[in-house]
Amino acid sequence: MKYKKKPVIIEAIKFDSITADSLIEIKEILGFQDLIISFKEPNNPVIKIKTLEGTMSANIGDYIIKGVQGELYPCKPDIFEATYEIVEK
Description:
Blueprint: E1 11-14, H1 20-30, E2 35-38, E3 46-51, E4 54-59, E5 63-66, E6 72-75, H2 77-83
Antiparallel strand pairs: 1-5, 2-3, 3-4, 5-6
């Protein structure tokens, strides 16, 4: 059998920096539910996201997606750009 993904509208934000402004934007769009920022490597901050599949990491450049049921998960930019397009309001 073959299946086609249903068209759904999601919210997402690109994690492009660890500035106060970018964190405020992430909070406004996604909320800070289950997000942990790790500075284990000071030059490479990582957002840890608790998902149904366990804790996943979003690196700088990754997108953070809010799914259809409010769940959060990271997505690499190449996958995101091949899968999603901007919806006009």
